[in-house]
Inverse folding.
């Protein structure tokens, strides 16, 4: 079995990481890469690190070509633009893993409020499986469309989900302090991402209104069954990649020991999730699809610490993991 993969929107960091992962996957190959701005160039011209690894050229997007030459499309386009393309691909019979936020939320009005655009395919909002195999593998397996999770959300949802599902913490008092590498801002040039702006500096941004906050709350609501109340503050740090989330919760008869036991029970069959005794660091998971998390007691709160690679588990690695589930393969293929 060889899975033919199309990468739609081939110029960004997540597209590059997806290509690198598929290139080493034993049962998948990239057959089509598209970009409006770089069409006609080789993928190695767009991403010089791929020189000598492929002769694939970037083409203009064409749904009919994708349908003919691909079994699944990894859609790496921004919100709004992605939904329109995804709808066309699904209509052409191509299964899609969408990297944007267009299909992650349960409520189209929440999407419109936070993303400032009318959704091009509102019927699929709330009717698309969320691409977290650790929780939704059975639904992902037969899905025509998978909403690949956000990077920040995974670093919060993975540790918090089991604790809320078991009623071990108060869902109305959750504080999430997250720090991300600069690659999380994308490859497009922005003043705030310039070397002179980010080097030797750390800064908070989008305080109280980051677009990932409703995604985190949405998923936590599903686990707890009651509305979750969270404070989420992201920070930009002077490193290439990685996310470290420090999460403050109020326990309900929970202890660090019971938290660790709950994680171990919930993620017993999840090859990439690791409850560890040490304090995780981004270096511990860099360039991998692994998640490390631990817990400490501090006064009347528990402190959860979770580290992921924002480009791998936070995006491209999760997509490959989802692809493996969709095609009934071992989740670990191409990721270890």
């Amino acid at each position: 079995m060889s899975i033919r993969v199309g990468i739609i929107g081939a110029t960004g960091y997540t597209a590059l990481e997806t290509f690198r992962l598929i290139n080493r996957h034993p049962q998948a190959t990239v057959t089509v890469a598209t970009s409006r701005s770089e069409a006609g160039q080789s993928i190695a011209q767009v991403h010089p690190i791929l020189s000598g690894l492929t002769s694939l050229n970037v083409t203009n997007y064409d749904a009919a070509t994708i349908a003919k030459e691909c079994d699944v499309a990894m859609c790496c386009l921004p919100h709004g633009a992605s939904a329109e393309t995804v709808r066309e691909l699904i209509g052409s019979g191509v299964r899609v893993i969408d990297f944007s936020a267009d299909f992650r939320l349960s409520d189209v009005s929440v999407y419109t409020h936070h993303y400032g655009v009318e959704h091009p395919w509102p019927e699929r909002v709330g009717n698309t499986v969320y691409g977290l195999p650790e929780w939704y593998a059975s639904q992902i397996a037969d899905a025509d469309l998978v909403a690949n999770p956000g990077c920040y959300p995974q670093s919060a949802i993975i540790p918090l989900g089991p604790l809320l599902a078991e009623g071990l913490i108060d869902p109305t008092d959750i504080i999430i302090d997250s720090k991300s590498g600069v690659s999380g801002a994308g490859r497009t040039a922005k003043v705030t991402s310039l070397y002179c702006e980010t080097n030797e500096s750390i800064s908070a941004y989008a305080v109280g209104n980051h677009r990932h906050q409703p995604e985190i709350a949405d998923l936590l609501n599903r686990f707890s069954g009651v509305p979750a109340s969270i404070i989420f503050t992201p920070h930009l740090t002077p490193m290439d990649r990685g996310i470290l989330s420090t999460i403050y919760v109020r326990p309900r008869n929970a202890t660090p020991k019971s938290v660790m036991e709950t994680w171990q029970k919930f993620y017993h069959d999840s090859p990439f999730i690791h409850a560890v005794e040490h304090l995780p660091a981004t270096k511990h998971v860099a360039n991998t699809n692994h998640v490390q998390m631990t817990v400490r007691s501090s006064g009347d709160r528990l402190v959860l610490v979770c580290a992921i690679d924002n480009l791998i588990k936070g995006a491209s690695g999760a997509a490959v993991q989802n692809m493996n589930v969709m095609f009934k393969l071992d989740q670990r293929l191409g990721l270890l």
In short: Residues 141 and 326 are 4 Å apart (CA to CA).
